[in-house]
Structure prediction request, 127 residues.
Amino acid sequence: MKRYAVAILLVAVLATLVFSRNSIEYQPETFRDDLTALIEKKQYRKAIQLLDRADVQTQLDHDKQGYLLVAEDLIYRPGVSGEFSFPEDGDWEIPGTSDTNPNKAWQDAATSFASQYNAARWSIDNP
Prediction:
């Protein structure tokens, strides 16, 4: 019985170490650079984890201006009226978004986060 308990404890400790090493922490100051680095390495799952941890309001406060752009057939701003337009100062195209990107989970996560972010930005810019 003691061996079994020790084995379970060991597995739990190892799982915690592996998970903490493979997780990524959200920092608004490095959010865009972190996402870019993850996508360049094709680490889509970690990029999705970062989006899940990101706080829209905190990121809005940090960025101060601009919208998040997503590439599909065209570049657009999900979550706002007049979604299709040319990028403006402060806008940022989320890396790795494209109608040719085979990772649909990443495309969906990026579009969802951009939609939330842009809707909140729109309400600030158009009270």
Remarks:
- The mean pLDDT is 83.
- The longest strand covers residues 68-71.
- Residues 74 and 84 are 7 Å apart (CA to CA).
